[in-house]
Design brief:
The protein has about 230 residues and is of the alpha+beta class. The chain is built from six helices and nine strands.
Length: about 230
Amino acid sequence: MSDETADSRQESFRALLRSLRVWDTELPHFDPATAPAEPLPLFQQWLREAAEAGTPEPHTMTLATADANGMPSVRTVMLHDADRRGWHFATHRTSRKGRELAARPEAALGFYWPAVGRQVRVRGAVTAMGARESRADLAERSTGALAAALVGRQSEPLASCAELARASEAAWERALREPDAAVDSWTLYVLEADEVEFFQGDARRRHVRLLYRRAQGGGWVTELLWP
């Protein structure tokens, strides 16, 4: 590829980025004075409203972890629950994120719901749940999720797509045959938040940012942040 062609492609890409619209719709109003004393009820309300507004897969989230040397990695995973214990997600403990959580049991979560111009950021310590709860979590998921878990070997090098196809086919057959099959490496994790930030976008960039921080004696304190 010539330098001229590469430059043309780069400029075309930049033009595409500049042409994309952000929040080209009416956004909801958020008055932080009406926010509850704890972040969980507000999070549950916002996720429900995002779903009602048509946001695809509003329960997906970005999960950021770091290895023993502090090098970060990020991926998109599914929220399994959010309750007074924290934000729940699951993976193989032998996967990259599982190994990183074993080395540094802390993480950050990010939710983005463009239909309503909202973000939620969550940060805190992560605890791996025991075999009973992890098994119950997997049992509540779909046949496809069980089949994927049965394939295992997440994050390991893959020799070919054909190898994956063979393993996946065998896993699907077993998942249909044994819907209660156990996967020993499957682990439920719970993130106990020490910070939760709610961001409401505004078309004029007067964004509202409300930060909850866990107080030393329990409970939460809140503060507004400049956008």
